[in-house]
Write a structure and sequence with these properties.
The chain is α/β, with parallel strands linked by helices and about 350 residues long. The chain is about 50% helix and about 20% strand. The strands form two sheets. It has a seven-stranded parallel β-sheet, with helices on both faces. A six-stranded parallel β-sheet has the order 10-9-8-11-12-13, with helices on both faces. Strand 4, helix 4 (about 90-100) and strand 5 (about 105-110) form a beta-alpha-beta unit. The longest helix has 17 residues, at about 15-30.
């Protein structure tokens, strides 16, 4: 049995690689012996990292041949149909959905939107309308599809990476893990002041973690220098999970810094540059602040409160444990679409 996976893989973004790591794990559980083929920007690296077969995602004739020879195409996870980071994104993934017509397509725990352009909305509506089954990672995404006029059933699950587990429990030390990304309008001086206050009030040592070397390294290096902290650049999703799991509190702009923190039961404060960050924080009852309106006192107060709250990790664990079965739900649907009984 062959399953093809499309998404933003092979570009060094450890958040997306964590999604793929979890998807591969869950699909292999649901479909023993499955052959996984992944569209990638770096097929050789994707093969080495995940033990799958890689295909150049821009080789459209090759992609079409792969889809025709597959039993199922999994579209996602991640935020593929959105036009905030690039207006080209929904067009490219819409094209891939067109190439997959004739093979069942499972929309796999995607985050939908924001979609600011009329063309983006039209392409997304058509792509979703042709899917055999649709799962999204949050209620906001389901609401957006309804607003677009998508009539097919939409099931709300959760981010696949929330189903990951650290290799062993970590004693949570006094480390404050910080993960940032470049974004227009962010007040870096306010964020820096907030982190300094938080570290001082909670008596924690900051450690900057870079999850996307290409996009985030420069701003991560500058922040680490300003804080006088270590800079860690993990080489794999598993290493990123282990680094984050050792923290007492995490402050993150990158969504998957927060997802990995939640998977490791580490309390966090989200710095929301995109609705997906605030949506995820709210889903697990963790605080967040707006990236473009950081109040140093507010952010530092959240961090200090979580560091002092001995029950915070336990409450997060119970919340995440209630969601973790949803991380595997798309893989179970995949099995049903190809006639395998889980």
């Amino acid at each position: 049995m062959r399953v093809a996976i499309l998404g933003y893989y092979g570009f060094g973004n450890l958040g997306d690689e964590a999604i793929l790591h979890a998807m591969a794990e869950h699909l292999r559980e649901a479909l023993p012996g499955v052959e996984l083929w992944v569209l990638s920007g770096d097929p050789a690296e994707t093969e080495r990292t995940h033990g799958v077969r890689g295909v150049p995602r821009t080789d459209l004739p090759g992609v079409r041949r792969l889809f025709r020879s597959s039993d199922l195409v999994c579209s996602g996870g991640g935020s593929l149909f959105q036009d905030v980071t690039s207006w080209r994104s929904p067009l490219f993934y819409g094209l891939l959905h067109e190439l997959a017509r004739g093979t069942p397509v499972l929309v796999y725990a995607q985050g939908i939107g924001p979609l600011r352009r009329r063309t983006s909305r039209a392409v997304t509506r058509r792509a979703m309308g042709g899917a055999a089954a649709i799962t999204v990672r949050d209620q906001d995404s389901a609401d957006r599809l309804r607003e677009l006029g998508v009539e097919r059933p939409v099931e709300v699950v959760c981010d696949p990476a929330l189903g990951l587990s650290a290799s062993a429990p970590h004693p949570q030390d006094r480390t404050l893990v910080v993960c940032v990304r470049p974004w227009p309008g962010v007040s870096w001086s306010h964020l820096l002041e907030a982190l300094r206050r938080a570290a001082r009030q909670a008596e924690m040592q900051p450690r900057v973690v870079c999850l996307h070397r290409v996009a985030d390294l420069s701003v991560s290096e500058e922040l680490a220098a300003q804080l006088g902290s270590d800079l860690v650049v993990p080489s794999s999703p598993r290493e990123a999970l282990e680094v984050v799991t050792g923290a007492r509190v995490v402050v993150g702009m990158r969504l998957h810094a927060l997802v990995l923190a939640a998977a490791g039961r580490v309390p966090f404060v989200g710095v929301a540059y995109d609705p997906k960050v605030s949506s995820f924080a709210a889903s697990v009852d963790m605080p967040w602040v707006g990236a473009n309106s950081v109040d140093p006192s507010e952010l530092a107060g959240h961090v200090a409160a979580l560091a002092a709250d001995l029950g915070a990790a336990g409450r997060l664990r119970r919340k995440v444990d209630s969601l973790r079965p949803l991380a595997r739900r798309p893989a179970q649907l995949a099995a049903g679409l190809v006639g395998v009984v889980c």
